Amino acid sequence: MSAEPQLAVVAEQTGESPPLVGIVMGSASDMDTMQSAAKELGERGISHEVTVMSAHRQPDLVAEYAKQARGRGLRVLIAGAGLSAALPGVLAAHTDLPVIGVPLSSRLSAAGGLDAILSVIQMPPGVPVAAVGLDNARNAALLAARIIDSGGSWPLSVA
Question: Rounded to the nearest 10 degrees, what angle do helices 137-149 and 31-43 cross at?
């Protein structure tokens, strides 16, 4: 068995601009659900990239991706994960960019995806993750579009 981390990246560029949104998922099996985020962003002309990496199997890779995201021009990260759904929190722990978590259901989910929902919304203080509904990647893209369109600078100061 190879110890090499497996990373799949598909960059979907709109026009000449670098990607503004990083769509990350923990497994290639999440692609069908997360594709609705890519489709929504594409329809809005928002450049994005789609990446598969596991917070549990490739924690160093996930941390490095998050740390380099701002420098590569990304403005928002969308993270889809099921079961323990650690990916959104791990990304948020390593970046000051807004992270939107998409809890994903699967055949192994507890209580129809409740495990993923709780994992995404129960972040410790100082590790903010926004959450959308179960399997609702499209709403994550709509929220990312609003964040980008707001023109606000991130991170926001909290008084």
Answer: 30
CATH number at residue 73: 3.40.50.1970
Residues 6+ apart with CB under 8 A from 45: 14, 15
Residue 108 lies in a domain: yes
pLDDT digits (tens, 9 = 90+) for 16-25: 589 999 999 9
Distances (CA, A) of 51 to 34, 70, 87, 134, 156: 10, 16, 12, 20, 26
Contacts 24+ apart (CB under 8 A), 145-148: 145/40, 145/41, 145/44, 145/46, 147/75, 147/76, 147/98, 148/20, 148/21, 148/46, 148/75, 148/76
**Is residue 34 within 8 Å of 25, Cβ to Cβ?**
yes
The sign of the dihedral angle between the CA atoms of 109, 80, 140, 152 is positive
pLDDT range class, residue 27, cuts 50, 70, 90:
very high
Domain membership of residue 71 (yes or no) is yes
Total number of domains in the chain: 1
Range of the domain at 94: 8-134
